[in-house]
Inverse folding.
């Protein structure tokens, strides 16, 4: 009985020590270095610091980023991901044969994180799996909203900042619930379960 009480106290102390820590920090407490290394290696990315794991209801999507082409966008996306900003956000605008858009905290396409980014238009084309920033009419109005192309969209080239590409799990992006009408707004949209920088896993 005394041993059981002692074990219960120990468990309680261990739990209180982790209280208030960020999710990424608590994950690190429960993983051995070997396990963490295996988790990163299984995604087979070129640069784990510049790759994201996007968890959707149907499976995992890996996005490799282009810091050489859109350094400020990649930096900001990683900041938001590490803050947990994207977790639970909706794919509010999804047009079949075109793209799936997310990143609005209200799920309406009307807002962002509150920090506008100067455009970093580049030579990367909009192809199937391209990840690019959404924006308003002003070229320097991109914030946190981005879209993933279902198919090639050459009319967007040079007009929107391409910052990454889906390198695995595009079949799960294809399963995101579509919207209706020309604007593609979705009723009861699918959500991002979580987004993580692969280096942090």
């Amino acid at each position: 009985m005394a041993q059981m009480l002692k074990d219960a106290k120990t468990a309680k102390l261990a739990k209180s020590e982790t209280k208030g820590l960020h999710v990424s920090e608590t994950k690190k407490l429960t993983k051995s270095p070997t396990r963490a290394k295996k988790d990163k290696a299984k995604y087979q990315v070129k640069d784990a610091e510049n790759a994201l794991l996007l968890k959707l209801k149907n499976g995992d999507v890996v996005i490799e980023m282009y810091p050489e082409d859109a350094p400020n966008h990649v930096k900001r996306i990683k900041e938001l991901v590490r803050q947990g900003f994207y977790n639970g956000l909706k794919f509010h605008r999804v047009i079949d044969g075109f793209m799936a858009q997310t990143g609005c905290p209200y799920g309406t396409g009307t807002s962002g994180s509150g920090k506008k980014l100067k455009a970093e238009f580049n030579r990367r084309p909009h192809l199937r799996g391209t990840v690019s920033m959404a924006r308003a009419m002003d070229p320097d109005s991109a914030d946190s909203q981005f879209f993933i192309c279902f198919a090639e969209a050459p009319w967007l080239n040079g007009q929107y900042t391409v910052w990454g590409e889906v390198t695995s799990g595009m079949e799960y992006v294809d399963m995101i619930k579509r919207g209706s009408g020309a604007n593609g707004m979705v009723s009861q949209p699918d959500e991002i379960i979580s987004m993580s920088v692969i280096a942090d896993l």
